[in-house]
Each structure stands twice: as structure tokens, then as C-alpha cells.
Amino acid sequence: MTKAMNSKRKKATKVRRRLSANDREQQIVEEAIHFFAEGGFGGQTRELAQRLNITQPLLYRYFPTKQDLIERVFNEVYINRINPSWATLLRDRTRSLHDRLGDFYRHYSEATYRYEWIRLYMFSGLRGEILNRRYIRIVEDTLLMPICEEIRDYCGWPSVDEKPITELELEQVWVMHGGLFYYAVRKHIYHSEVSDDFPAVVSQVVTTVLEGLQSRMSKGKP
Amino acid sequence: MTKAMNSKRKKATKVRRRLSANDREQQIVEEAIHFFAEGGFGGQTRELAQRLNITQPLLYRYFPTKQDLIERVFNEVYINRINPSWATLLRDRTRSLHDRLGDFYRHYSEATYRYEWIRLYMFSGLRGEILNRRYIRIVEDTLLMPICEEIRDYCGWPSVDEKPITELELEQVWVMHGGLFYYAVRKHIYHSEVSDDFPAVVSQVVTTVLEGLQSRMSKGKP
DNA sequence: AATATTGTTTATCATATGCTAAATTAAATT
DNA sequence: AATTTAATTTAGCATATGATAAACAATATT
């Protein structure tokens, strides 16, 4: 029995060695995502290696420098995370704007309100990486601006062709968007207690904002 | 001329040495705030010393460990930053709730939407410091809950005595609060372009939220 | 002016940390 | 089975980094 266990354990301990280059690389990236998300990019390569059950120099076989690994992590987490179908969803005027926004934030939060995503994003921002500004630009152009336009339509305001979206209109949507994002910051960065019914929060907030904007409109505020 | 310049330069370089212990300590804390806010708590003590024009071991005369200095920075930045008069302001029902919230966020943002405050706060959160949760608790108890109560009154809902503030009501206010806070995150962490008229943003958001909530109420949603 | 006090620097230690070169060995190829 | 290929480890370099002890020197005290 002991023999069997030993051989089994041996296998369990050693069998994972000598992966194919592709598998090992992917494994490293995967673990690096968790690792850097937890402690930031100051984390030591030796500790990362330990978590992978490999030696530290092996990391350098796959990534020439730590910075290269970090950039790979960025790519893995942030590339192609914005689904183009979301913009389509938002513009679908056969549905109520309330439902569209609810659906959108359900999808959006599933993709981005994750422990790794949120934390790496904030670490990256504090580091002064270009990533965040680039991401914000995309969010603004492909998501928030369309939302502004749908709000225009919802409230019966002039179309974008007649009058471009103003800075304040965009900021209004940013506060909603940022407020919902901040829910994830409270949860994953501060480890604070938050409501466990995020869709309910979205629904309530969206209702309030839409009703509020519509009410402002009826009082003659474009 | 060269002589005069030399002696002058010498003076300029050396005259600031040998401060009183109190002055030196304060000077170190002050610089440490900027230093850690920029690069995080991983910043090297040697670099901090260089910026202070002192040698690195001198830091350890005033702070036994780096961690001690960091905690001192926390105290300096976060202790007594919440002005009790804000809660009073918020409860002053002789004024419109819109004006009260506008004033409150003017004061609150002046105190906390600062480069150092925001960044140290986020660095601290990512580090897992208790600071953030403690701060959040205070914000919730002394600011957001009162706001919830005022909203109840504003909308003509039952008082808190009759029915405690629900989780969703608090979350609604958190999204507004967090959304406004996120304005500062975009500015000071992502270095993104934001509207330079924050009071206008506040005014607009507050109007929308208040109108929206009131409108929901009139449709029978407490 | 001599002495005591204390703010500051010099020199240094121990460990951490990114990274490299060469040796080793598991797996693929012949 | 012998040989080649390539994944992995061992050993170690160079510099970074928090921290300490002792020497030094500006200021205060006598």
C-alpha cells in the first residue's frame, strides 16, 4: 500500500514536469494573472515560480524579462474583453432602454467585475500604464456614447446629428457607469460588504437615472 | 564671481541641514506623502531620502521601520478628514436637499479628491490595509445613511423609525457617491480627461437622482 | 572657551531580487 | 538502444534594499 501510494504520489508530484512549451507558457501566464492581481507587479518572480512548482529561472526561458510577463498578463486580461455585441444590444430600440441597460451591465460586470480584472486594472492605473486611458477611450466611444444617444432618444431630446453629446451628458453617464464599477472596487479591492444582488442594484440605479433624466426633460432641460 | 557663486551654492546646499527634530520629522512625513502617493509603498527609502536632501539612515532615526513611516503617512492623510459639520449640513432641512448635497460634495471633494488622498487610498486598499474598510464604515454611518434618511424625507417615504434603510437604498446612494468618487479616480489615477467643472457634474447628478427617486415614489415604490 | 547634547553622515551588513550560463535529464527521433 | 532535442534545474552574479552601529559635527549648555 505504501509502495502504491508512494508511486502514486511520486507520479502526482513529478508527472506535471516537462510540459510542452505552449502548455507551460500558458500555465505561467495563468498563475501570473492571479499572482500579480493579489500582490501587484512588485511580486517576486521566485514566489511566482514556487506557486507554479517550477524553478525561477524557468520563467526566464519563456519570458525574457519580468516586464514581458507583465505585458503578457495585460494582453491576456484586457484584449478582446469588450464584446462588440454589447453596443448592438444597447442600440436595439425594440426593447426598453431599462432592459437594455440591465442586460448590458449584467454582461459587462460578468466580464470585468472580477477579482483579477479589477485589481490588475487599478494596479496598472497607479503604475501610470497607458492601458487604462486606452481602455477608457474605448469604453467611452463604443459604450458610453451610445448610451448617451439612447438616453437622448428615450427622453425625446434632439438627436446627435442636431446637437453633439455635451461633456456634462457624458459625465452624467460616467457617474452611473463609475458608480456601478465602484461596486466592484468596494468588493474586490476594499473587501467591503456589498449587496449580493448586483442585478437588483443595476435595475434600481438605471430606473432612477432614466426617470430622473426624463423628469428633467419634462421641465425643459435638454 | 566663481568664488561667490560657490559659496552661495554651498550655503544653499548646506544651510537646510540640522533642523530641529520636530521640523525634520514633519518634513519627512510631508515628503513621504508625496513620494508614496506617486509610486506606492514599494518606493525605496534611499530615493525618499534623496528627495529630502538627507541620507537614508537619517530616516531611521525618526521612524524605526519603513512600515512605521507608512503608518504615519496614513495617520497624517486620513485622520480627522471627515468633518462632523458635513453631517449637520446634510440634515439641515431649512435648505433644499439638492443644495445641501451640492454643498456637501463641494466640501467632501475638496478634502478627499486630491492626488495624494486618492492614490494613497487605492494603494492602501490594494495592500489589504484595514484603513479602507474602517473609512468606509465611517462614511456609511455618518454620511451615506444620513443622506438616505434625507432622501426618505424628500420623497415623503416612511421615516427610519418606521422602516430601517434597506440594503438597496444604501446601494443606490453608494452608486451616486462612488460614481462621483470615480471622477477623482479617473482624474488622479488614470490621468484621464475629466470635466473641469465638478460642481456642475454634482449638481446635474444630484438633480437626476433626486428627481428619479421622487418619480419612482410617485409610482408607488418606497 | 570647554563641554554636553543631539542631529546627521559614513560605512556596512544581510537579505532580496532580476537575471544568466552551464549542467542535467525527460522525451522525441533515429 | 543510441542519439538528438528541448524542457528544467543548479549555481551564481550584480545590484537593490531595509536596517544598524559608530563616527562626526552643529548647536546648546555650562
Helical fraction of chain A: over 70%
Most extensive interface? A-B, 48 and 48 residues
- Major β-sheet profile of chain A: none
Low-confidence stretches of chain A: 1-16
Strand-pairing-aware structural class of chain A = mainly alpha
Number of strands of chain A: 0
Q: In one word, what is the shape of chain A?
A: elongated
How would you describe this protein?
With 222 residues, chain A is mainly α. Helices cover 74% and strands 0% of the residues of chain A. Chain A is built from 11 helices and no strands. The first copy, chain A, is elongated and about 65 Å long. The model of chain A is unreliable at 1-16 (pLDDT under 50). The interface between A and B is large, with 48 and 48 residues. The first copy, chain A, binds a DNA duplex (30 and 30 nucleotides) through residues 17-21, 24, 44-46, 54-58, 60-61, 64-66.
